[in-house]
Structures are given as structure tokens and as C-alpha cells.
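note to self: dont lose this again. the chain is below, predicted strucutre after it. 157 aa total, dont forget to put it in the shared folder this time
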Amino acid sequence: MEKSSQRNKRQSGDALKQVDIWTAQCGKCFKWRTIPTVEEYEEIRSKIIEDPFICSKKDGVTCEDPADIEYNNSRTWLMDKPNLPKTPVGFKRRVVIRRDFSRLDCYYDTPNGRVIRASTQVGRFLSDKPEYNNISVSDFSFTGPKIMEDTLPPPLS
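---
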């Protein structure tokens, strides 16, 4: 499961643009398929081990069709860990790359606009908001995707 982002120049002050394409790799032919929404991507990612993605899960697509996108260094690719939980309804998960491209940080925006940066903050938020009693701390993951270094733009001299 990967995300990719259009690249910017790698220099101080420039940041990687937001994720602009969600993709999944077919478990049979290994071709990359674009996934239209973050919600669909998270659904696939949340159960990728027990229910691997294959081309035929996309309407009208088979392994015989050309790949939707090629893995190369024309954009920066990010690799999520498998089986991360789907973002709870009403929340938004954001992935932010550090300026030095060293790692990504994950944050959640709550329905009331608060930003949560750690599991301990999730626990406090949920205990303060009984209307979210159907959500648990385990429904959140602050594990950031891995930056695929072979797709990073070269540093500017």
C-alpha cells in the first residue's frame, strides 16, 4: 500500500506537497492501481493481510490491463504499514513530512477542530467526550508511512 506525492525541490523552506494519489499494489500481478479516495484506501489498508488487494477488486480491471501508475522517481512514494486502522468517522488523519525529509508525523483532526498528536491525547479526548464512547484509542495509529528513499528528489547544492 502506498501513497505518492508530487515532488517539490528539496531545499530548506520547501515542503513536500500533500498526498495526491492513493495506490495499492495487486497481490497477483504486482501492478499499481490508483484508489480514488482516502476512505477506500484506508479500507483496503486496514485488512490487506487477511484480504489482499487484487486488480479485479476494481470495477472493470484485471491483471491483463496496464498499470494505473508506475513506481518510479517522478514523484515521492510513501509506504504505509499494513493493517493500520481506518480513521474513525468524523476525524481526519494527516501525514506531514519533516522539512529535512527524515520522517513523517501523523496527526488527527477531531470533529471539533482540535489536533491530536499522540495516543495519550486521544485517551484524554475520548474520556472528555462521552459521545465518542464507540471509539477507542486503538482506532488511531500515529505510525507514519516510510519514505521510499529511492524516490526522493536529490538535495539541491
